[in-house]
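Example 3.2
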Amino acid sequence: MGDYILLVDSQEGVKAELNQVIASSSVRIMITTDVASAKRKMFQAVPAIIISAVVVENQDDAGFRFCGDLRQHSEFARIPVILIGEEINEQSLQLAKEAGAKAYYSRQVKANDLYKVICAVAPQVGEQLKFSPNTDETTEVEPAAAKNSEYLRILLAKILRNVNSSGILDFCTEKQVPALLMDMTRLVCENEKQSLDAANSEPFKNEDFSLKPFIQ
């Protein structure tokens, strides 16, 4: 196994957090912005860890496919892969598991989280790090009001989509619309609650490694 971390990402956020983790250590980072370049670097020198964005070169699933391809290659199959997604939901977690990723985080991932996962999946790299975790640091970076507003917008969009797709408005009277919307709201909110409960109660597990990802 190699001695460097391969980062596949065109944005700066994760790179900045990762630079904090490796500061003052002998661990190196090699950075590419596309999967083809990443593969070329891997054939030159096998990395100890790969951290890859899910969205690469405007391809929404490039990171999943990259991770899955590595699992089919005898030389690269054992390299731990940490995926960084635009959002975390049930579908993206399932895709990450199926691709063989060791962990999946949102772009809000902080240095503390990266340090912990590196130490867990690649102890030989972790023991070289001189990073001191900040116990006060949190991945919660957005104001609560902003997050609640975004969450409400998503819920309302789901409610309206369900109402439109059901076709029930073609059959109900004007007086029945408020009750219909209330029923649909309860249904969507109950489904959301079940998804969140499942995500918060089931850590991301893969082989012998278990880590609970940051759930937005």
